[in-house]
Each structure stands twice: as structure tokens, then as C-alpha cells.
Amino acid sequence: MFIQQAAKFLFFCFISLALISCEQKKTTSGGLLFGDSNVLFPIVQDGKEGYIDKTGKIVINPQFDEAWTFSEGLAKVKIGNKLGYIDKTGKYVINPQFDKAEKFSNGLAKVDIGGNWGYIDKTGNYVWK
């Protein structure tokens, strides 16, 4: 377990440093690549996970048992044995209630409660069970 956490921490440190060192580059759609100031990166501190910005400043205090990268403005986080979703301020948008969950894609996320899989929207409402 410790080796997995250490590897995850080192991976995110490496990615963070790589992104910090990149110059801002415009995409063809006019958005920024690697220069987006809203990008947050998961970190591990004292056994809990939180998020830093590209300057290394802690934006969301480490308080989660596990934290994943943001996708479509929401990040999957784990408290105890349940998964939920937070926004970039650290506020729960969808409270931890899922046994398994995937990141959001095209406005939906695949989730499981007790072996019953379904898809939820960004408000936590089921769109398909």
C-alpha cells in the first residue's frame, strides 16, 4: 500500500513539474493547453489526498482517502469506502455514496451501488439504470 501511494505521489509530482515548466500554448479552439490556471493536481499529504494548482499551492486541503484528476469540472473522491464527486472548490456536488465510479465523460459518469450499475449526470441524477 505504501509503495502504491509513494508511486502515485511521485507520478503526480512529475506531471505537476512538467506542466509547470511548460509555456502557455493556444489550442486551435482558442483554449489554453498546459497554461490553464484552473488545472488542479491530486497530492498526498500525511496519508490524505487533496489538490494543488500548477504553482504548487494547496487549493483543496488533503482530506480524502483517495482523489482522482478532474474531468469536466468534477473529480471523483473517496471517503471511507464510498465514492462521490467534488467541484474545484472542494465542495461536494455529489455526496459519497457509490461503491464504484468512473470519471465524467460527455456529461455522464458510470456508477455502481451494490452491484447495480447506472449512469448519472453532473447533479447526481440517474439518467439510466
Task: Describe the structure using short key phrases.
single chain; 129 residues; alpha+beta; 4-stranded antiparallel beta sheet; 1 helix; 47% strand
Shape call: globular
- What share of the residues does DSSP label as strand, in percent? over 45%
> What is the tally of helical segments?
1
The run of helices and strands is HEEEEEEEEEEEEE
Computed over alpha carbons, the radius of gyration is: 16 Å
Describe this structure in words.
Strands 6-7-8-9 form a four-stranded antiparallel sheet, with no helix packed on it. The protein has a four-stranded antiparallel sheet with strand order 10-11-12-13, with no helix packed on it. The radius of gyration is 16 Å and the shape is globular. With 129 residues, it is α+β, with helices and mostly antiparallel strands. The chain has one helix at 2-21, and strands at 25-26, 32-33, 41-45, 48-52, 58-64, 66-71, 74-79, 82-86, 92-98, 100-101, 109-113, 116-120, 126-128. The chain contains one helix and 13 strands; from the N terminus they run H-E-E-E-E-E-E-E-E-E-E-E-E-E. The longest helix is centred in the N-terminal third of the chain and has 20 residues, at 2-21. The model is unreliable at 12-34 (pLDDT under 50).
